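Subject: Sanity check before I submit

Could someone independently write out the structure tokens for this chain? I want to compare against mine line by line before I put it in a report. The sequence has 363 residues.
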Amino acid sequence: MTHRRTSHRRRVAAAAAGAAALFAGTFAVAEANADPAAVPTAAPRVLSSAEAGTLAASLSAQLTPETSGGTYYDADSGRLVVNVTDEAAASTVRGAGAEARVVRHSLAELDEVKDAVAGFAVAGTAWAVDPVSNTVRVTTDSTVRGAELTDLRTAVAGLGDTASLAAVPGEFQPFLAGGEAIYSSGARCSLGFNVTVDGAPGFLTAGHCGSVGSSWSDSSGGAAVGTLTAGEFPGSDYALVEYADPAPEHPSEVSLYDGGTQEITGAAEATVGQNVQRSGSTTGVHDGQVTAVDVAVRYPQGTVEGTIQTTVCAEPGDSGGALFDGSSAVGLTSGGSGDCTSGGTTFFYPVTDALAAVGATIP
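---
Independent answer below. Compare away.
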């Protein structure tokens, strides 16, 4: 199965139509003889991260790649910040209730830079549009060094102010060793989210956890509870396991590892700046922030496109586990660097993309 992520704009467009009316901005009405310079404009709305994601989807559909420069959520103020390249676009953004920020580089320009980076990136690098710096941020792990690192620095410098370079400790790799533990031959991963496909129950996990046809159990050496029927890695990082017995209850919830659970009622797109939580069978529940979306990360096994980069920690065995924000499913744990003692960088494959690829729904 092939499902290659191409653009954050394309995947949010479908969600935009229903959001436009909900977030239509209001302006104070000026008197006919008032000074135009004194006409007040609506202040940016204070939004939850979920509301900001919906508004970002709406505005992504209204703006063009040439007039938009990406979005991010300011969790401290509760405002969605939208980068734009002209005043007409800024007016649209303000009218919708977001904060407009005029920047130099458009998404169209930065997408071309991403393509250029893909041409020289090596294993141990990740790259994505960073809306805060208005650049394509290239991140290296500790395995990129010597001549390889020198060449990479030179290439990034050649892109001028459209690209920036950062480094993180550890090695980018899939976390193979979300929810609760699941087992297959030679692997322990985490269940992400229970789903429904063609009227039957199943669950999502990471594609690198196993191959099509592999059997999965809820205990080490236990009887199979399902079979992996669809998935992809690298390129993407998702898998669908269909339950062998549809009769037992398969609740749409995530374990919080404190005796409680979080109900999951649907899936949502990630937004830069969003506060999120991850549940995994090795380290339990940890939280952090989304730092980039539509990220390409080059593992030793190959490149995974379209991931969500976060400050949430994870360790081997957490792969496939659930990234969520309240009742919304956001991602499936893919890989990264670091651990939950010292912290780290973790990448997640978007749940919305995984659902579309396998034809499943939540719940």
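---
OP: Matches mine. For the report I'm noting this point. Confidence is low (pLDDT under 50) at residues 1-40.
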